[in-house]
Amino acid sequence: MASVLKVVQWSDSYSLGLPEIDDQHKTLIDLMNDLWAAIAANAPIEDNQKILLRLEQYTVAHFGAEETMMRSMDYPDFDAHLAAHQGFIKRLQAEGERLSKGEKLNLDILHFLRDWLVNHILVNDKAYAAYLAAANKPTGFLGRFFSRFMHA
Fold it and tell me: Which is higher by pLDDT, 120 or 150?
């Protein structure tokens, strides 16, 4: 596609310190930028459909990975996080339905995707990453002392 400005650029402030999840977030951003490039180039609806479908499929897989991790650590805000994920997927599906009816995507979807993802990473995902880090960090003197032997 033609070179266009990106709708969102990866920032180190988005990093959770979880390399696999961070890489998945980078891929989501790349897919959003692909969608932006297609819209900016006035690409055929079929091209937008393909990109949107890839974005939806990748998002479902990514959310599944996050949800599995949150379940495994008994994350206390799991239900709210799951509901946010489901709402995002529904919005992607609604846009897919609009495209299948021959309607074009507009900038509203890109603003929604960008704002939702950036906010979700910075607030919701950072919260579970902090919870995970705290759960894996020994507390108290004895916990810190004995943890040295477990990681040797």
Answer: 120
